[in-house]
Specification:
Belongs to the NifU family. The chain is an alpha+beta fold and 202 residues long. Helices cover 25% and strands 29% of the residues. The protein has helices at 42-48, 77-85, 127-147, 179-191; strands at residues 4-9, 15-20, 30-33, 53-58, 62-67, 95-97, 107-109, 121-122, 150-158, 161-168, 197-201. The strands form three sheets. It has a five-stranded antiparallel β-sheet, with helices on one face. The chain has a four-stranded mixed β-sheet with strand order 8-9-10-11. Helix 3 runs antiparallel to helix 4. The chain starts with a strand and ends with a strand. The model is unreliable at 89-116 (pLDDT under 50).
């Protein structure tokens, strides 16, 4: 079973990062919000049921919990920690199942199905541009957002306007619409194409 080794604050005062000593998830990060049905993820469903929890962002090494402003961390942290540490490692979603009797290589094992990534809306002619954008984001932006307990998804690319969605601690962070956004804009304009404009949605 994984253990919570530390609970760290993030630049978002409503989000804390629960550090793990063993991975709970593999593959793409997972994101769950209150009011949206959780399919095939028992831990995500349980965490969202904790009073005051409004958003969850999960990666291999940590889980970021975003709280309601009216609920103190003292009422959330013990329940979240207990749920994480009580979650069976075998229920991890997205672990590849080696080829063998009764199973094909790469099949997901665990309590639920792997969560599909949201498709990016992009014109066929812009596919190469999108690849270059994601390469720069992977190298220069996403690792730093990860350190702060958050992430960034590309939602759409149309006529050099790049629509992105922040996740985890980055979703409600004040700098997501100021300093961080300016840095992403400048980086992509300098390294990819100076006509690019980044627009976040929340």
């Amino acid at each position: 079973m994984p253990n919570v080794t530390a609970v760290m604050s993030t630049p978002n005062p409503l989000a804390n990062k629960f550090m793990l000593d063993a991975p709970l998830y593999t593959g793409a990060p997972r994101h769950f919000s209150a009011g949206v049905a959780v399919v095939g993820d028992t831990l995500g469903e349980s965490l969202l049921a904790v009073p005051g929890v409004v958003e969850i962002y999960c990666t291999g090494g940590f889980i970021t919990i975003t709280r309601d402003p009216g609920t103190p961390w003292s009422a959330i942290e013990p329940a979240v920690t207990e749920l994480i540490e009580g979650h069976k490692a075998r229920r991890v979603i997205g672990i590849a199942n080696p080829a063998g009797p009764g199973g094909a290589a790469g099949a997901a094992i665990g309590a639920g199905e792997a969560v599909a990534e949201e498709p990016v809306e992009v014109e066929a002619d812009d596919a190469e541009l999108l690849m270059r954008i994601n390469q720069i984001l992977d190298e220069h932006i996403r690792p730093f957002l990860d350190q702060d307990g958050g992430g960034l998804d590309v939602v759409k690319l149309k006529e050099f306007t790049l629509t992105v969605r922040y996740k985890g601690a980055c979703g409600g962070c004040p700098s997501s619409s100021t300093g961080t956004l300016f840095a992403i804009n400048n980086l992509l304009q300098n390294y990819v194409d100076d006509r690019l404009l980044v627009e976040p949605i929340y």
